[in-house]
Each structure stands twice: as C-alpha cells, then as structure tokens.
Amino acid sequence: MLRIILFVIILLIVIGLVLVSFGIINLHQGPDGGVSIRTSDVEVGTTTTNVQVPVVRMEDRTVEVPKVGVESDNQQVNVQ
Of 56, 13, 50, 20, which Cα lies nearest the Cα of 37? Predict the structure, then answer.
C-alpha cells in the first residue's frame, strides 16, 4: 500500500514538472516571496495544409531470380 501511495506522489510530481517544462503552467515569484501560478490555454484541433507524400507504384519488370532444382530418381523438383 505504501508503494502505491509513493508511486502516485512521484507520478504527480513528474506530471507537474512536464507541465512546467512545456510552458502550460508558469510559476512566478513575487517581490514579497509569494508564488503565483499562471496557466495557458491549450488549443487542440486540425488544420489543412499541403504536404509532399511519398507514393509507391506497382509496375511489372523482368528480373533474374535464383532457381534451385533437386533431382531424385526419375523426377525433377524445381523451387523458385
């Protein structure tokens, strides 16, 4: 039980540090020693833009491929 509580506390600290490092939460210390917290609005959405996308095309080509043959008694087996 103590491990779970410790894990939750550490997780909250890490989340707080990440929010401060990304600038979502700003900490400011005033001249009297007090700390004020300012939060920024986070906007999530989509936008339309033109990008270059690689395209794969199928085309027929004649190429040489390895061929293995095995002869056994009177029959021949070809593996491609």
Answer: 20
